[in-house]
Design a protein that fits this description.
The structure holds two protein chains of two kinds.
Chain A: H1 3-32, H2 39-55, H3 61-87, H4 91-113, E1 125-129, E2 132-135, H5 136-157, H6 162-169, H7 171-176, H8 181-203, H9 215-228, H10 233-253, H11 256-273
Antiparallel strand pairs in A: 1-2
Helix pairs in contact in A: 1-5, 1-8, 1-9, 1-10, 2-3, 2-4, 2-8, 2-9, 3-8, 9-10, 9-11, 10-11
Chain B: H1 2-14, H2 22-47, H3 56-72, H4 77-99, H5 104-124, E1 126-128, E2 135-137, E3 142-143, H6 153-176, H7 178-188, H8 190-195, H9 200-226, E4 228-229, H10 236-249, H11 255-270, H12 275-292, H13 297-311
Antiparallel strand pairs in B: 1-2, 3-4
């Protein structure tokens, strides 16, 4: 029995699921060109959907993932079409508005389901390899997120991904060749929000479900996007797994709250070391 | 506008004499400090245009300094208040130096992360009372030892009101000074400001410094009023409230955010709405304002008024 090996394995499982969510955030940054602070709220939404389903006896992960994706897509399209698209040239409105949406969701979740942590049973171990327990949620999350990420990478490199790439590159040209840029933007926003909800639904058995649970994955995805850029899906995956390990190890060695603090410290350092970071990707005035 | 302000101050001065109930008096007193805090956000977030989402960091530094220095180190309140002001200004200097090279949304990320770090650390920190037997810290916070046993609520009310008048006057004067003009230029376009020979990084840093000072002053006053520093002083919700009230009142006008904070705080708290519901209402109001009044309610209305004046040839108000 080696507890540290268990922590590492679970870190890889959670990290690869965070990669799914981070890819969604990268998509928003590339196509919609905004820094979205509401991404974590969609993660919590997915986790709460999984929790409510399992509390009502539906414990198959696929149900939770599909249902939460549909709900998150609907909310994402609404947010993208009615709020993000009209204000996206005002960095202040985007930052404070998306944060406001996230806090709105947190407080609504607290009113609906209470501030106390809820949890789903992690289930019986699937396999035990020299004392390390492999559970269903871990295998399902890795397979599902790797699958969705691979599909996303394929889609982007096929002719279906061309409009997205063109908008990321130069939206004037995209508009001039007759693409409905606004529509592609809010659909992308909805789709990306669905990836966050899927990650939340997949990880729900592994975490305690609280209204503010989305803050950790939000910071983590922001780090991934700033550190690894928006194009390389493999880089996103690797950085996310690394951060998943970091957050699990600091939670194990120090205390659970330190995984959040360590991620916050990483993002501060990253911003200080790479201040030019993503400049050029976010539209608007020259600040 | 001047008439409305005079009426408002008259009403605020008259209310306690008109037999306002002690609960509402207390709500208004804490509202005065909150309003100063929101005004200080407007220095850096509105006038200088730097999106700060960690403003509670300066406020919380001040309240916690007051609490820890009086209760734990046994300092007199006046000395602790002075030290708290210095500390919050110092923290603002560090945050300002860190953000100086960053732009737009990335300042928002950095300040948000710094505020959350402070919040998490205070949430996990336990302090042992020097008299032993019990501990402070965590969500319940740390008590502030005050020099008075029980101050009359009237004295606190009028003291806080005077503090709000003075600090708002100071912040408005700064925003209208030459320094304030440079901040406005940076907010308009950093590139243009730099082209006109402005040392953008240094003036941004100064805006943080001034904002940290006034937020610290509000924190010291709040600590003196409430008698306790709690982790909500560092919370993301408090940072968000500053940006929200400023957006509703009109960013960059100082008086607008101050009045919006005072009015909404008094309205929602006075009506007895629970904290969670309050944050939801603030967030909804914010989203609607950002969507339909891009320059803030006061700002957009003023623009429309100005446009109408121009059409009617300068006649009007």
């Amino acid at each position: 029995m080696n507890p540290f090996a268990q922590v590492l394995l679970d870190g890889i499982f959670t990290g690869s699921t965070y990669a799914l969510m981070a890819a969604g955030l990268a998509l928003i940054l590339g196509v919609v060109k905004v820094v979205n602070l509401s991404h974590g709220a969609f993660f919590s939404l997915g986790a709460y959907v999984a929790y409510i389903l399992s509390a009502n006896g539906v414990s198959h992960p696929a149900t939770a993932v599909v249902l939460s994706c549909i709900i998150a897509f609907a909310f994402g399209v609404f947010l993208g079409k009615s709020f993000i698209n009209p204000v996206r040239f005002h960095p202040f409105s985007v930052a404070v508005g998306t944060l406001g949406f996230a806090l709105l969701f947190e407080q609504a979740a607290q009113m609906l389901w209470g501030p106390h942590p809820a949890s789903i049973g992690a289930g019986a171990p699937w396999a035990t390899v020299s004392g390390i327990v492999v559970r269903r949620w871990g295998v399902v999350s890795v397979v599902a997120s790797a699958g969705i990420l691979a599909a996303l990478a394929l889609l982007l490199s096929s002719r279906w991904g061309l409009p997205l790439k063109l908008i990321a590159e130069d939206e004037e040209i995209a508009r001039s060749v007759g693409m409905d840029v606004e529509k592609i933007r809010y659909l992308t926003f909805g789709f990306a929000s669905a990836t966050a909800a899927a990650a939340g639904a997949l990880l729900a058995p592994a975490t305690s479900i609280t209204p503010t649970m989305g803050r950790v994955p939000l910071i983590l995805s922001l780090i991934v996007v700033i550190a690894s850029g928006m194009e390389n899906v493999l880089a996103i995956f690797l950085v996310a797994v690394g951060l998943g390990l970091l957050s699990n190890i600091s939670a194990y060695l120090l205390a659970p709250q330190w995984s959040y603090v360590s991620l916050l410290t990483v993002i501060c350092l990253l911003l200080l070391l790479r201040p030019e970071g993503l400049s050029g990707t976010v539209p608007g005035r020259d600040y | 506008m001047t008439g409305a302000l005079a009426l408002g101050s008259g009403l605020l001065l008259f209310l306690p004499l008109a037999g306002l109930d002690p609960f509402l008096l207390d709500v208004l007193t804490s509202g005065f400090f909150l309003a100063c805090y929101v005004g200080s956000w407007d220095i850096v977030g509105g006038v200088a245009g730097q999106i700060s989402l960690g403003h509670a960091l300066f406020f919380g530094t001040a309240t916690y300094s007051c609490a820890l220095l009086t209760s734990l180190a046994g300092w007199p309140f006046a000395a602790a208040g002075g030290a708290a002001l210095l500390l919050s200004t110092g923290v603002a200097a560090v945050v300002g130096a860190m953000s100086a090279r960053l732009k737009g949304p990335f300042i928002a990320l950095l300040t948000l992360a710094l505020g959350e770090i402070a919040h998490e650390i205070m949430l996990g920190q336990t302090f042992f009372s020097p008299r032993g037997t019990y501990s402070w810290g965590g969500e319940g916070g740390v008590p502030v030892t005050l020099p008075w046993e029980a101050l009359s609520p009237w004295a606190m009310y009028y003291g806080a009101l005077l503090f709000l008048f003075l600090s708002t006057w100071g912040m408005t004067a700064l925003a209208r000074s030459k320094e304030g003009l440079i901040w406005t230029a940076i907010s308009g376009s950093e590139l243009t400001a730099r082209a006109s020979g402005v040392d953008v990084a240094r003036h941004k840093w100064r805006a943080f410094l001034v904002a940290g000072f006034f937020a610290g002053a509000a924190g010291v006053g709040f600590a003196a009023h409430v008698g306790r520093a709690t982790t909500s002083d560092f919370s993301l919700e408090l940072s968000f409230q500053a940006a929200t009230f400023a957006a509703i009142g009109g960013r960059g006008t100082i008086v607008g955010p101050v009045l919006a904070a005072l009015f909404l705080h008094a309205l929602f708290l006075g009506a007895g709405i629970a904290p969670a519901a309050r944050v939801i209402l603030y967030a909804l109001a914010l989203l609607l304002v950002l969507r339909f009044f891009p320059a803030g309610v006061a700002g957009t209305l003023r623009e429309r008024l100005r446009a109408r004046k121009m059409v009617s040839g300068g006649a009007g108000l």
